[in-house]
Amino acid sequence: MKYIDVHCHLQFPEYDADREEVIARAQREEIGIINVGTDIPMSVKAIEIAENHKDIYATAAIHPNHTKEKFDLSALAELAKHPKVVAIGECGLDYFRSLPEDFERQEEVFIQHIELANKVNKPLMLHIRNAKSNDGGDNLNAYKDALKILKEYSKVRANFHFFTGTQENLDEIIGMNGMVSFNGVVTFARSYDAVLKSAPIDRIMSETDAPYLAPIPNRGKRNEPLFIKDISHTIASIRGEMVDKILPQLVDNARKMFAI
Q1: What gap in Å lies between CA 237 and CA 197, rounded to an integer?
Q2: CATH at residue 228
Q3: What's the predicted TM-score (pTM) here?
Q4: What is residue 162's DSSP assignment?
Q5: CA terminus-to-terminus distance, the chain
Q6: Domain extent at residue 18
Q7: Considering its fold, how many domains does the chain have in total?
Q8: Separation of alpha carbons 124 and 114, rounded Å
Q9: Is 160 left (phi over 0), alpha (psi -120 to 50) or beta?
Q10: For residue 192, how many C-alpha atoms fall within 13 Å in the half-sphere facing its CB?
Q11: How far apart are CA 115 and CA 133, in angstroms?
Q12: Alpha-carbon torsion 137, 238, 125, 156, what sign?
């Protein structure tokens, strides 16, 4: 592997017409992929793709925005045992697209995921998103709540996918031996530069979150793992480090985090 995309969704319908071509483009560039589950059916599909391709792995979980739906926890537990499932996620707390009355259920399901991760000894792939407005202060701070829950329940490492937290959040994550990953937004928004620069080089990872948030020069198009090249090079540029240093470090970080 020369590059690594630790968070994408190739099982989504956006790729139904050309999934194998998308995968082939990534593999020609030696890009490793972690395909992230968002509910039981999408986790199953992620695993099926991983089973059939070298250097593609999967995760299994119920996305926080799906926690109001009924799901079979025992089915999720079986998926979690699969050898190509390298993490439990994406799970966590999403206050952005949820109402306060949903938060308790999200927390309950988040804890179930943490306990499952502890049981199978696999890391967590987290989706943590604050509320639209800061008017609620700490009452709407998903990072604050997630970190509190992790400290109480988690025995495994966690990656905060699409990290949008503060320096204080980052420091707390680093103190818990956690990781943060950055996607294509870093190619066109400058609001994440400071935390990206300050993060220890062994605690950052690269992701696309495909099919969403394609980086420059493909912004506005469907995203795909091939574009991790642009994201990885931008990470190096923002940090003021040589590409030849960053690329192997990003891959090594993912190998250690997800045992791949």
Answers
A1: 10
A2: 3.20.20.140
A3: 0.96
A4: S
A5: 11
A6: 3-258
A7: 1
A8: 7
A9: beta
A10: 19
A11: 31
A12: negative
> Quick check: helix, strand or coil at residue 8?
strand
Q: How confident is the model at residue 98 (pLDDT cuts 50, 70, 90)?
A: confident
CB 257 within 8 A of CB 244: no
Tell me the C-alpha distance between 249 and 202, whole Å.
7
Q: What is the pLDDT of residues 120-143, one digit of tens each?
A: 999 999 999 999 765 445 568 999
Antiparallel, parallel or unpaired: β 56-60 and 31-35: parallel
What pLDDT, in 10s, does the model give residues 144-178?
999 999 999 999 999 999 999 999 999 999 999 99
Identify whether the C-beta of residue 84 lies closer than 8 Å to the C-beta of residue 120. Answer: no
3-state secondary structure 64-100: HHHCCCCCCHHHHHHHHCCCCEEEEEEEEEECCCCCH
